[in-house]
Design a protein that fits this description.
- A hairpin with a 6-residue loop joins strand 43 and strand 44.
- The protein is built from nine helices and 56 strands.
- By secondary structure, the chain is mainly beta.
- The radius of gyration is 30 Å and the shape is globular.
């Protein structure tokens, strides 16, 4: 949605201040399709111009009306809120279509600060169709004050469109195969979104996720992995959850803890089928409850300790809601709910109550107040006790990189012209082309930058061996003597360059002796007023060829179909890709003034903030304008301390970032708690298959909302009911 325009007159004397216009008027209009009065507080004014008072009254009333429409139709993922959103727009259309499209008019009354009627003129609000379509609406406010009449109008277009893509996972697997993770560490959420049954994921060697986890399939756990539920990095007001659609099998220590006190809607583990343990498992901690749901439980081996409620409810097929507790040391600091039968073979301590619908075997082994043990109970399954739903599927990807490469639909892509230019002969430029222009060689950049976040700007100088200013191919034609040994290469995005698309020549293979450092500077001045993202972006794309054909949208899956995408293979050692604004803050002048060499560790005092809120003393990057688009059957192998600050959209490609990454990076959460990590990537990684190695971290940062990734996914059930404010008029 577009922001409501601000008029200079709003700050002049005589403006009418509204306190209840939004609530009183819009609740009645949008939610009940009737119109009531508007309460208004009026400031005293020395302005004797009657027409100005009439204009200010009309324009303020109209602006409050439009602002409330914006509030009531704000984008949401909540199904209940989405239904109210649709209802609001439907009722607005109903008002506009009344009287054969002439609409509905109501008189507005104004109340002064003393609650009594205050005669500052009369105002009429009319909601009517504009033209023949109810999708186009004009809202008019007409005020008469002491004989002077002024009229203003807002022209709006209602819409029901596919929801823009939301990227909430640091790592997201799209393929239908399982995967194993060794020392994988994720700051943010992780998901396996392909709802194919029978997949098995494996966590080994201290794999940890600091956020939520959603996966379709089963999870096998060994060697002390950790899931630490933290507030969402997308919305700090939301909590986190663990959802596993099939089985969880714990053969070694597994810890699921939380940094948040439990509240409705988060701090739970939801297992679609069976939980089995043969070694130590911890869920929750004192003061930080985590509830657990499953459809069958077999708790054995060593300790099981939980802070929170344990629920075993019936599921599909053979899952009858039965539970067996036979671990050597098992405690539930909460209540136990079993919809089937409960079998207790070793001492089980329950600090709350035990509710069992079926029979209890081994009741004497339950350490619990006798009056709190209920056999043959009826389970309410309401409120906290309601089993969370496992979504049938995650948001489906509709468009693939091939669509962005080849589509002629500007609603889908903005980069197809640049991509196809590589194959029709109109763009033959490579990195070496820029190396042949002395203005781009040994390039020095000095810019005033607010390094402290206080508004005070400091001149910062950084130097580069090579500067890239337009779309081109990264080929293997650069001189090693000039551009090996960690050369710094600046990609400079501007209004004149537009989107810069860099094609990676198929087979590009750069060993550790090259170790290039790519820095992407984005200074395009056209800004999205809602998100603050710059219009243009930098894309690194696979060399997938021009033989790609787009075969339309599949009528069953709703996904775009394509064929003819060439397979690509890339291998990099020591490749580092930075956003310029992060780069000049992360490193000191001794690094920035070099045109070659490994930049090394971030400077002391640099703290990266991947959360959605500002944290004192940290740097919070903007949404990433660096996008990697890899087509079908592409494989990327990045090793030897490679690091990527950018987002990968590679749903049919293999991404192996098997590297220890960038060392010594300090990362903070929204509470200011810090941790120092080896970091492989800052962004999101979406891939068919993903591989990692070594103890390294992946940190969440959202991709730019102006990039083509914003069109990649959504679906028929994800409509956003809203409006576009086209213009204001003053008659």
């Amino acid at each position: 949605m577009k922001n409501t325009p601000k008029r200079k007159q709003r700050n002049k004397p005589g403006v009418v201040l509204f306190t209840a216009v939004a609530v009183m008027l819009m609740l009645s209009i949008l939610l009940t399709a009737t119109v009531s009065f508007v309460s208004v507080n009026r400031t005293k004014t020395n302005d004797n111009y009657k027409s100005k008072q009439a204009y200010l009254t009309a324009s303020s009333t109209l602006e409050s009306f439009i602002n409330q429409i914006q509030t009531d139709t704000a984008p949401t993922n909540d199904p209940t809120a989405k239904a109210q959103q649709k209802k609001a727009i439907d009722n607005l259309k109903k008002l506009a279509s009344a009287n054969s499209g002439k609409g509905t008019t109501t008189n507005v009354s104004y109340n002064g600060s003393n609650g009594k009627s205050d005669n500052i003129g009369t105002t009429k609000i009319t909601v009517a169709q504009e033209g023949t379509s109810v999708a186009n609406i004009v809202v008019t406010c007409e005020t008469t004050y002491l004989g002077k009449t002024e009229k203003v109008a807002a022209h709006i277009s209602t819409q029901s469109v596919t929801k823009p893509a939301e990227y909430t996972n640091t790592i997201e697997l799209v393929g239908n195969g399982g995967a194993g993770y060794d020392n994988l560490n994720v700051i943010g959420d992780m998901a396996g979104i392909n709802n194919t049954t029978g997949k098995v994921y494996r966590f080994t060697n201290n794999t940890s996720i600091y956020g939520s986890y959603l996966m379709y399939g089963s999870l096998e756990v060994s060697t002390q992995p950790l899931i630490l539920l933290k507030p969402s990095l997308v919305d700090e007001k939301q909590g986190s959850t663990v959802t596993i659609s099939e089985n969880l099998d714990v053969s070694n220590e597994f810890h699921i803890n939380s940094t948040m006190a439990r509240a409705d809607g988060y701090n739970y583990v939801n297992i679609g089928q069976k939980l089995s343990t043969s070694n130590h498992m911890d869920v929750g901690s004192s003061g930080f409850d985590v509830d657990l749901f499953c459809c069958e439980a077999n708790i054995g081996g060593n300790d099981y300790t939980q802070y929170g409620n344990f629920y075993v409810y019936k599921g599909a097929g053979a899952y009858n809601g039965d539970a067996t507790f036979g671990a050597a040391g098992q405690t539930i600091n909460g209540s136990l709910y079993v919809e089937g039968d409960l079998n207790v073979t070793k001492s089980l301590k329950v600090t709350g109550s035990v509710y069992v619908t079926g029979t209890i075997t081994g009741k004497d082994k339950i350490v619990c107040t006798a009056s709190n043990i209920h056999e043959g109970a009826v389970l309410s399954k309401a409120g906290r006790d309601a089993k969370p739903q496992i979504p049938v599927s995650a948001d489906a990807y509709v468009y693939y990189p091939e669509d962005f490469f080849m589509s002629n639909d500007t609603n889908v892509t903005t980069i197809s012209d640049q991509y196809q230019a590589f194959y029709d002969g109109s763009n033959t430029k490579t990195f070496n082309t820029f190396a042949s222009d002395w203005t781009n060689v040994d390039y020095t950049l000095t810019e005033l930058i607010d390094l402290t976040g206080t508004g005070a700007k400091t001149p910062v100088t950084s130097r580069y061996k090579l500067r890239i200013t337009s779309s081109c191919t990264w080929a293997s034609d650069l001189s090693f003597n000039d551009y090996g040994n960690g050369s710094r290469i600046l990609v400079d995005v501007s209004d004149s360059s537009g989107d810069i698309v860099i094609r990676l020549q198929n087979g590009l293979n750069l060993g550790a002796e090259w170790s290039p450092v790519i820095v992407v500077r984005n200074r395009s001045t056209i800004i999205d007023t809602t998100t603050g993202d710059r219009k243009y972006n930098c894309y690194f794309v696979s060399d997938s060829g021009s033989a790609i054909t787009l075969n339309g949208i599949d009528s069953v899956t709703g996904k775009s179909q394509h064929s003819g995408s060439s397979a690509c293979n890339y291998s990099f050692k020591g490749l580092k890709v930075f956003d310029y604004d992060t780069y000049v803050r992360m490193f000191d002048s001794s690094v920035l003034n070099n045109t070659k060499g490994n930049p090394g560790l971030p400077q002391s005092g640099f703290v990266l903030n991947p959360t959605s809120v500002d944290v004192a003393g940290s740097y919070r990057p903007k949404n990433s304008s660096i996008i990697f688009l890899f087509g079908e059957n592409t494989t990327l192998n990045a090793t030897d301390q490679s690091f990527f600050q950018g987002s990968f959209y590679s749903p049919q490609a293999i991404v192996n970032i098997a590297t220890s990454g960038l060392g010594g990076l300090v990362v903070t959460d929204s509470a200011g708690e810090k941790m120092t990590v080896q970091c492989c990537a800052v962004g999101v990684v979406i891939a068919n298959s993903f591989g990692n190695a070594n103890t390294a971290f992946y940190v969440y940062t959202k991709p730019s909302t102006t990039s083509v990734m914003q069109n990649a996914k959504g679906g028929k059930d994800d409509s956003a009911f809203g409006y576009t404010l086209d213009r204001y008029d003053h008659y």
